[in-house]
Structures are given as structure tokens and as C-alpha cells.
Amino acid sequence: EPSNPLDWPARALLRARLAAGDGGRRLVSHDRELLEGMQRIVELSTLGLRSYGGGYSFYAQSREEAREAAERRLDQRRLERKRQTLAMREQQPRQERRQASG
């Protein structure tokens, strides 16, 4: 955490130097205020690497939107599976009657 041991003036200087840089930098931090000033956040998770343009607020919003979309897809798949299960249950007695009648 690059900003942990710093007082407010030093933190402001760090943010200014990061913002003034013309090249890429790697910064590992949990400091949301520091991350807010970044132009891109790259997250490493069990899903792999994901890149988000913008600071922490954009990153957090994008992650939440992705989570909600994944939740909707999961709900849709569960509903479709339930429909298929019900359809199979409805068809089973008909199929058994057809087989019994020859």
C-alpha cells in the first residue's frame, strides 16, 4: 500500500505525481481515494484479468452491473430449467399411456 505511511500532504503529492505521469504505471492498492484518480483499473480474480477504464467509482459501478447481469442470466436459466422439468413431467404420463396402449 503506497499511501499507508503517508500524511495528507504526502498523499496529495503522490496523487499529483501519478496524475502527471505520461507513461503507464502499476499500482497495487486498496486505497479507494487513490484508485479514484487512476485512468484504468485491472482486477485479478478467480475469473482472470479484467480491465476497467476509469477510476474506482467506474470500476465499482461496472462490477456491480456485471454482477447484476450475471444474476439475471442465472435466474433466467433456472426458470428455463424449471419450465423444461415441468414439461417433461407433463409429457411423461402421456408417453406412458401411448406405450401401454401399444
Question: What features would you describe in this structure?
Answer:
With 102 residues, this protein is mostly helical. The protein has one domain (8-101). Helices cover 63% and strands 12% of the residues. It contains three helices and two strands. Strands 1-2 form a two-stranded antiparallel sheet. A hairpin with a 2-residue loop joins strand 1 and strand 2. The chain is rod-shaped. The mean pLDDT is 87. This is ABC transporter ATP-binding protein. InterPro entries: ABCF_ATPase, P-loop_NTPase. Residues 69-102 are annotated as: Disordered. Residues 69-78, 91-102 have a biased composition (Basic and acidic residues). Keywords: ATP-binding, Nucleotide-binding.
How many separate domains make up the residues?
1
| Helix content bin | 55-70%
Which residues form runs of ≥5 with pLDDT under 50? none
Q: Rounded to an integer, what's the Rg over CA atoms?
A: 26 Å
Order of helices and strands: HHEEH
Rounded to the nearest angstrom, the distance between the terminal CA atoms is: 76 Å
Short description:
Keywords: ATP-binding, Nucleotide-binding. This is ABC transporter ATP-binding protein. With 102 residues, this protein is mostly helical.
Could you give the topology of this structure?
Blueprint: H1 8-20, H2 32-36, E1 40-45, E2 48-53, H3 56-101
Antiparallel strand pairs: 1-2
GO molecular function: ATP binding
InterPro entries: ABCF_ATPase (IPR051309), P-loop_NTPase (IPR027417)
Region (Disordered): 69-102
